[in-house]
Amino acid sequence: MTAPAQSPQVGIGAWSGNRTAPFRNGSWGVRATDRRIVAAWAVDMLVVLVPVIAVAASATKGSGSIGAGIFVGITLWLLFPWFYGFCCAGGNTLGTLLAGTRLVKLRDGSAPGFWRNGWLMFLRTVLFPLMPLNAVLDAINGVGSETERKHHVSIDKTETKALHQGRS
């Protein structure tokens, strides 16, 4: 596949204004819009949190101990994203399916593997909510705010397919 007429200076993992960019192997893709990415993450967060909260509430009611409910809730919150990720083959979660996006490797645009799917869901639903704390610590330490993805990116499935078919 040939590159579009105007090649960007940065790859698809950089959050620049240009969404059409190359993967590290030279193939091209179209990064999903921020709105679609946030929508996919929000759906995935709900898919994890709703059952976790329901089971934790049930454990609290069943045992009569709020501590038991908190313990069950935290344990499930740490484990359930892995299970959910393992069930999401090909970088397609319920969130990405509804948003029209897909998680792919920056290396070559391919889908993440079985274990990586679990890690990505853990990242989205457990570690991502901790990012504001990380941003505050980075600001205190004087770290810049430039963001570039290192391993994975969300692509727009429809626009990437059109790009590969030469209609973009």
Write out key terms for the chains shown.
168 residues; two-stranded antiparallel ribbon
Describe it for me?
The relative contact order is 0.19. The strands form 2 sheets. The chain has a two-stranded antiparallel sheet with strand order 1-2. The protein has a two-stranded antiparallel ribbon with strand order 3-4. It has helices spanning 34-63, 66-86, 94-99, 114-127, 131-141, 157-164; strands at residues 20-22, 28-30, 101-105, 152-156. Helix 1 crosses helix 2. 54% of the residues lie in helices and 10% in strands. It has 6 helices and 4 strands, in the order ββαααβααβα. With 168 residues, it is mainly α.
